[in-house]
Amino acid sequence: MTDVTTNAGTGPRSGIEIRNLYKIFGANPSAYVEKVQAGMGKEELNDKHNHVLGLQDINLDLPPGKISVIMGLSGSGKSTLIRHINGLIMPTSGQILYNGRDVVKMNEEELREFRRHETAMVFQKFALLPHRTVLENTCYGLDIQGVPRSKSEPVAKKWIDRVGLAGYEDYYPNQLSGGMQQRVGLARALANDADILLMDEAFSALDPLIRMDMQKVLLDLQAELQKTIIFITHDLDEALRLGDKIAILRDGALNQVGTGQEIVLRPANEYIAEFVREVNRGRVIRAETIAMPLPEGELPKMKVKASSVLEKIARRMADAEVRAATVVDKANKPIGVLDMPTILTAMVTPASVEEGDDAVEDNAA
Amino acid sequence: MASSCWGLPEILCEFPSLPNKTLRHMRMGIDDGFRGIVRAYSDQIDAATRPLQWFLNMLEHAFVDTPWFIIFGLILVVVWFASRSAKIVIGSAIGLAMIGVFGLWEDTMTTLAMVTVATMIAIILGLPIGILMARSDRMQKILTPVLDVMQTMPSFVYLIPVVVIFGIGKVPGVIAVVIYAIPPMIRLTNLGIRLVDKEVIEAADAFGANPRQKLWGVQLPLSLPTIMAGVNQTIMMALAMVVVASMVGVGGLGKNVLQAINNQFFTIGFLNGFALVAIAIIFDRASQAFGKRLQKHSEAGHD
């Protein structure tokens, strides 16, 4: 893992720092932490001592105002990890720091206050209260905080409108489709006005088209709200679409942490390489990543943004029937050039592990 | 005896039991000790049951002394508000009319008063016990065998200590009925709360609900259908128990049935039996319809 450097105190807002987190399930988990830290493997712990290693040595910074995606297949420990952030599951050892406070050390009352005011959660199977209407469900977090309905209902209405459910306030959850129910789940979480938004496979139970729709809703909201979002998914496409930062979890250990591009271009190991093989690279890789140095003499006339993805650039170049383009930064200053063969090569070549950056170390071994 | 036992020695032939003398001493010791304790505390026991006695008498007088048409109307109004179903109200009216026509109105009112009190006590005690049981696995482990005993022990058997402690009359009758009728209330409250969707409970936790908010805001509302089934079962069992309770001096329909059994009065037996059935059906349909109405959110399901 490359980026475990502390970034606390660099800005007014705090992200979440997960430090040396271990979670062992079983009758007497704390007895085995040291052995696991000393190198006992998952298999040995399970076979000889009948304990399950849920998470091992997780060190992760979740930056404020960004969407951090934790990706992994079922059994990788991702749902366990997200539940540590609001203390629904307590670690066997380790720290979870937010605003200089350790969630692990909070007592029950502090934890309740933390959950009420700093976090909100969206669930895979929605977990709406079936006996409450859409409006009442959206008010739920504020009800728990003790906010009177006269104040909470306008807030709830605003968020119901914002997620596109205006007019459904008095419906009961099971009168709505899955996609609509999850909009209620999202409205309920947003009404809490918490800084941290935890989304546990929030869109996994939805049909593909509705899932895309919800991803767009989330991205639009995030552009405006800039919450610290932790999003869990087993779907790499979803991770790449949403994640400012992606952490890949396997068997309870972090395998790679980085941006979508870094993961697609330099998978840390064979396991991740396998994952990214099927990814539409044209939608992930950006111009700046593969731009060639500025040549002597005249630059190509077409200008493309450094942050544009290759698919878009290729389409523009094909439409304009040009073979090369100049990559410019935000200030419109040329920083490099691109030609069609380079773009095509980057879009089709599967990345191989051997090319991987030295800084990305293989953690799976 | 030994001859019918393939010539085996006696210890293999008859199950070796404690000597008769020992058993007799044991029985007498326990019985006398129990009676002694009851006698020593009889004043306290009387004082403790006096509010119950008073409440029972008051309710019985209220039911019996109020002119029949008022009670008749009142029951129909309650049934209407519980069920909102004209069919159930009309059925109840016919049932009550038949009871009156066959001269059983007053006895029915006595029975109704007792069943009402017994059911109320069973709910008031059963609900919190069921909640406790749902909250703690240890509590469930302790209470489950107790409930098993309460439900399988022949009801006549626990009438004995009840009579020893409380004597003959309405109070011991009600206590016996409550013992018999409370297990489904406890069991179904426990079951209902335990069956509440784990994800919804987790959501409540994630939003920072405290145990009280979780209980009243999530667990009880979501287990209400199951709890209502428990109330329904409790009423049914209370009605079934009134005949047995009449053996310790509870009046009403049960007493008539008991007399009919003793004198082989076929018609009286059946008429009173049918009166009980009529009340049972009225209560059952009304409480079930009420339980269903509480779940209006689950109607018109999407899938």
TrEMBL record, chain A:
Alphabetized Pfam families for the sequence: ABC_tran
Main location: membrane
Membrane topology: Peripheral membrane protein
SUPFAM superfamilies: CBS-domain pair, P-loop containing nucleoside triphosphate hydrolases
Keyword Transport: yes
Keyword ATP-binding: yes
One Gene Ontology MF term: ATP binding
PROSITE patterns linked to this entry: ABC_TRANSPORTER_1, ABC_TRANSPORTER_2
EC number: 7.6.2.9
Subcellular location: Cell inner membrane
Protein keywords: ATP-binding, Cell inner membrane, Cell membrane, Membrane, Nucleotide-binding, Transport
Domain ABC transporter: 16-276
Catalytic activity line of the entry: a quaternary ammonium(out) + ATP + H2O = a quaternary ammonium(in) + ADP + phosphate + H(+)
SMART domains to which the protein is assigned, alphabetical: AAA
Subunit structure: The complex is probably composed of two ATP-binding proteins, two transmembrane proteins and a solute-binding protein.
Family classification: Belongs to the ABC transporter superfamily.
NCBIfam families noted in UniProt: proV
Name of the protein: Quaternary amine transport ATP-binding protein
Protein source organism: Thioclava marina
TrEMBL record, chain B:
Membrane topology: Multi-pass membrane protein
CDD domains documented for this protein: TM_PBP2
Keyword Cell membrane: yes
Location of this chain's protein in the cell: Cell membrane
Segments traversing the membrane: 62-81, 88-105, 111-134, 155-182, 234-253, 265-283
Domain ABC transmembrane type-1: residue ranges: 108-287
Family (UniProt): Belongs to the binding-protein-dependent transport system permease family.
Segment forming the signal sequence: none
Provenance organism: Thioclava marina
InterPro entries reported in the protein's UniProt record: MetI-like, MetI-like_sf
Protein name per Swiss-Prot or TrEMBL: ABC transporter permease
Keyword terms: Cell membrane, Membrane, Transmembrane, Transmembrane helix, Transport
PROSITE patterns reported for this sequence: ABC_TM1
Main subcellular location of this protein, as a coarse class: membrane
